[in-house]
């Protein structure tokens, strides 16, 4: 309110204008929520990465590296041109679609298409209750839309792929219906995905590209359903940045922010690690052991009713609560989460706080949960 918020914005501006940003000070400020004005939030989310460098270097470096990724991963001139019949390159056996060699470019291309179909299905329905992701971005990717390049867009590739959707059900058991029942998918009539005219791209297409490149660069994990729910809020925050100079780079910045976050969160998505120290089972159990420590009475009540942590904490932890609240609340929780150096430990505290407050559901103000989590943290 009034003076308070103006003063807070000032505090952030001062902290961010330091030659060498004092992360401790900045994190303390971020913990209580970050103002959206002046692009402060987007900037703080970028800077709160563990190894923070000067913001400007970050920006331009990201952009170049990312363009390189686009050229290598998405723009495959040889294949795209041959597909579009634009140039009759000599198709050798090496580059023939029927080449049985598992390393052949075509083989990779078809494999990638399976991943792409799964991503496509998931990103098209990001936040169905908001029009944002269906709208065209002001900054479509020039590199890909440039008619000079004869490149094939991912959307075109999905349309051309004849692979049947059943090859796509290899997602993790348990994460299949990751969307919470509240997010009904039938909010729009069946023509909800009107294809935008050539030369423009919807925001969901940008998210699709980010996830596809991530999958190509991280073949060990590739794409797992639910990652779209983690990219969504990051991209939304960067793509609505009031500072247009930053907003223009939303795609590259989201990619690096997401990659950073996944470097700490990816173990939750790797099924073979489920039962290891770093896997999701261990984390789900730590929610209960912490609860036992903080609120024995509630812990016993849940035990007695045989309510297992995995019923709900799987989704809470893997998707960083992005499915439990409306987007503005998710973003507010992430302000605090990203500001904590040990963000995943804090996430466990937040889950505990949610359980402790569960009897006051529905919680209309996430602030209550965060305050409770902070209280649990201070008492440990």
TrEMBL record:
Keyword Magnesium belongs to the record: no
Keyword terms: GTPase activation
GO MF: GTPase activator activity
Protein name in the entry: TBC1 domain family member 13
Rab-GAP TBC domain sequence ranges: 35-341
One GO process term, biological-process aspect: intracellular protein transport
Gene3D superfamilies: putative rabgap domain of human tbc1 domain family member 14 like domains, Ypt/Rab-GAP domain of gyp1p, domain 3
Domain of life: Eukaryota
Pfam families to which the protein is assigned, alphabetical: RabGAP-TBC
């Amino acid at each position: 309110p009034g003076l308070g918020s103006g003063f807070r914005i000032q505090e952030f501006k001062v902290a961010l204008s330091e030659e060498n940003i004092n992360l401790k000070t900045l994190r303390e400020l971020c913990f209580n929520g970050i103002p959206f004005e002046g692009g402060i939030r987007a900037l703080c989310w970028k800077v709160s990465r563990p190894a923070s460098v000067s913001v400007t270097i970050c920006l331009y470096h990201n952009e170049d590296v990312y363009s390189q990724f686009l050229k290598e991963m998405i723009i495959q001139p040889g294949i795209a041109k041959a597909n579009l019949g634009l140039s009759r390159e000599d198709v050798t056996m090496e580059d023939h679609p029927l080449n049985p060699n598992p390393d052949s470019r075509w083989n990779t291309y078809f494999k990638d298409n399976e991943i792409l179909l799964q991503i496509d299905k998931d990103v098209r329905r990001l936040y169905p209750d908001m029009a944002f992701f269906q709208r065209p971005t002001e900054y479509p990717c020039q590199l890909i839309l440039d008619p000079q390049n004869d490149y094939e867009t991912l959307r075109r590739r999905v349309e051309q792929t004849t692979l049947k959707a059943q090859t796509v059900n290899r997602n993790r058991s348990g994460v299949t219906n990751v969307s919470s029942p509240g997010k009904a998918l039938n909010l729009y009539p069946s023509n909800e995905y009107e294809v935008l005219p050539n030369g423009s791209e919807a925001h969901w297409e940008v998210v699709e590209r980010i996830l596809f490149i991530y999958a190509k660069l991280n073949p060990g994990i590739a794409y797992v359903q639910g990652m779209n729910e983690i990219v969504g809020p990051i991209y939304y925050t960067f793509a609505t940045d009031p500072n247009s100079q930053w907003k223009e780079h939303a795609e590259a910045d989201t990619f690096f922010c997401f990659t950073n976050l996944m470097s700490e969160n990816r173990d939750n998505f790797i099924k073979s690690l489920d039962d290891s120290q770093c896997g999701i089972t261990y984390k789900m159990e730590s929610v209960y052991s912490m609860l036992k420590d903080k609120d024995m009475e509630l812990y016993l009540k849940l035990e007695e009713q045989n309510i297992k942590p995995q019923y709900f904490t799987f989704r809470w932890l893997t998707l960083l609560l992005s499915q439990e609240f409306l987007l503005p609340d998710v973003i507010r929780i992430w302000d605090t989460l990203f500001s904590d150096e040990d963000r995943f430990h804090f996430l466990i505290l937040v889950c505990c706080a949610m359980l402790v407050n569960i009897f006051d559901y529905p919680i209309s103000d996430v602030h209550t949960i965060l305050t409770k989590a902070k209280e649990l943290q201070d008492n440990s």
